[in-house]
Design brief:
The protein has 187 residues and is α+β, with helices and mostly antiparallel strands. It is 28% helix and 16% strand. α1 runs antiparallel to α2.
Amino acid sequence: MYEEIAFLSELSYATGLIGLAELKERGEVARWLTNTDNRLRDPRQRCDEPREHQEAREPETSDAASPVEGVRKDDSTDQWTHLVVLNKWVFTIGDADCYPSVPHGHFQRKTNPWPKLNPYTGRVFVAPHEEDKLRRLTRIDMQMLWNDEQFLSFCRSQIEWYSRFAPQFQFANAKSGRYHFPRWRLP
């Protein structure tokens, strides 16, 4: 059964129906389902650190300054370009992960696997399909973000990179085209 699940998952990934995060998640579930000695934990249950030990929530700031700190090169490698948004969300050109969106932000560092920000919706995920509603971006944050030309340019660059990296990937929010971004008008 594992081979069939793995084959169908790899086929779905190759055709662009699912992303890298979904492929990994399906592999973990398939291994768990086919494990006969019950030594593997249920991958659907998060058993990492308790929620109170996760990153401390930062107070939400909505000052009139630009939400984008700026583009910077990572010190460890020259190939990754980062953009820090709202003083805590790091967007990376060259991020091969497509969950929860392309592009998406990582909390404080590109190496932090969770939480992740979907800039199209303002939703913050602390695990696959598990939203932290308290961290959701405010209307003002979304307006500042989507009216910043540097952020829009960065999004276009990441979409172009990802289109070359995974040409079969179907952009879920691209009904009007890959470069048609949300319109959040400033008051």
